[in-house]
Amino acid sequence: MPVTRRNRKSEDESPETPKMDLDKIKGLIKLMEDHDLTAFELEDAGFKVRLEKGGAKEQVIAAPQPVAVEETTPEKIVAEDTEEISAPMVGTFYKSPSPDADAFVKVGDAVDEGTVVCIIEAMKVMNQIKAEKSGVIQRILVEDASPVEFGQGLFVIA
Questions:
Q1: What is the structure's pLDDT at 73?
Q2: Domain assignments of the chain as residue spans, ordered by start
Q3: Does domain 83-157 have CATH number 3.40.980.10?
Q4: Which of 2, 11, 133, 152 is most buried, most CB within 10 Å of its CB?
Q5: Are 69 and 92 in contact (CB under 8 A)?
Q6: Distances from the Cα of 86 to the Cα of 89, 131, 141, 149, 156, angstroms
Q7: Residue 88 Cα to chain centre, angstroms
């Protein structure tokens, strides 16, 4: 369509874009600070402004409190040359073959290489854990029916 005088808009007739002066925006910021606001939105004569304070939201996460673990072994035998028997897999540690049976080993028990010292349940399979060397059980490091990680110490043997 060719531009003619009839369909041509003059410079004076063009709609003016609404403007808000900088002093007014600074006043809004001061208003936010004075009243401890975190967000503010204003629409005035076709001009819309939204102000938010603090770009990143602060999250407060309560840290779990450490649980006190009681030492179940009443005595500790002190030896200079000790070694740990560690968990060969992830699972649940059991010190006896059944809940009402005696423990495989207690502090002070002598064990030979290949003696079963505990069971670790992994994926509903009971795996017998055997001593890798002969010695005397110095300490039991894990509570019965506790979860254990790969490489976690189970017993101290000397």
A1: 46
A2: 19-65, 83-157
A3: no
A4: 152
A5: no
A6: 9, 10, 10, 9, 9
A7: 24
The encoded tokens of residue 113 equal 């290489």
d(CA 124, CA 91) in angstroms, rounded, equals: 9
pLDDT score at 32: 80
User: What's residue 18's pLDDT?
Assistant: 54
pLDDT of residue 49: 76
| Average pLDDT per 10 consecutive residues for the chain, totaling 158 residues | 56 55 80 79 74 59 54 51 91 94 95 95 94 93 95 94
Provide the 3-class DSSP secondary structure of residue 130.
strand
Contacts 24+ apart (CB under 8 A), 112-121: 117/85, 117/154, 117/155, 118/93, 118/94, 118/154, 118/155, 119/93, 119/94, 120/87, 120/88, 120/89, 120/91, 120/92, 120/93, 120/94, 120/148, 121/91, 121/92, 121/94
Residue 139's Cβ-count burial label (10 Å; 0-12, 13-18, 19+) is buried
CA count, 13 A, side-chain hemisphere, 145: 2
